[in-house]
Write a structure and sequence with these properties.
Elements (H helix, E strand, L loop, with lengths): L20 H5 L19 H11 L4 H66 L25
Keywords: Coiled coil, Membrane, Transmembrane, Transmembrane helix
Organism: Bifidobacterium olomucense
Protein name: Cell division protein FtsL
């Protein structure tokens, strides 16, 4: 079971507060206008940036570092994108070369098949006759006629 908390304050409503002599006699401090001792910056952007950095808590060095970092990042992204486009272009050229070479191989294979198919006709035109039976020679038991080992 949660216990109820009570909040006590020494503050009293304004109509119940005792009036002290000091609070009735003191008044609010007077406000004064202070003019800017520095002249207005001219329309030059660099001068305005320098003036702005002098009025801020961050020194000019931090701003320069941030701008240099942003420029380096943009330059790096540009270089990376350029390299990617160049690699893509080279890959497209290589794929075109591969497809051209594949087509050349297919053309050469078709020529070879055509020549192999026309070989029996050319042989018969030259007077050659196809072999009728097969002959095999077994050299496993061969002995030299000189009698020496080779």
């Amino acid at each position: 079971m949660a216990m109820a908390r009570s909040i006590r304050s020494n503050a009293a409503p304004a109509h119940n507060r005792p009036q002290s002599k000091a609070s009735t006699t003191s008044s609010r401090p007077e406000l004064r206008v202070i003019s800017n001792p520095r002249p207005e910056p001219s329309g030059n952007v660099v001068t305005r940036v320098l003036e702005w950095t002098r009025t801020r808590t961050a020194p000019l060095v931090h701003v320069i570092i941030a701008v240099a970092f942003l420029m380096a990042t943009l330059l790096g992204a540009l270089m990376l994108r350029t390299q990617m486009v160049q690699n893509s272009f080279e890959a497209a050229q290589i794929e075109a070369n591969i497809s051209r070479l594949t087509q050349d191989v297919e053309d050469d294979q078709a020529k070879l098949d055509q020549l192999v198919a026309s070989l029996p006709d050319k042989a018969s035109d030259m007077g050659m006759v196809p072999q009728q039976g097969s002959v095999s020679i077994d050299l496993n038991g061969y002995q030299s006629s000189k009698g020496g080992t080779q």
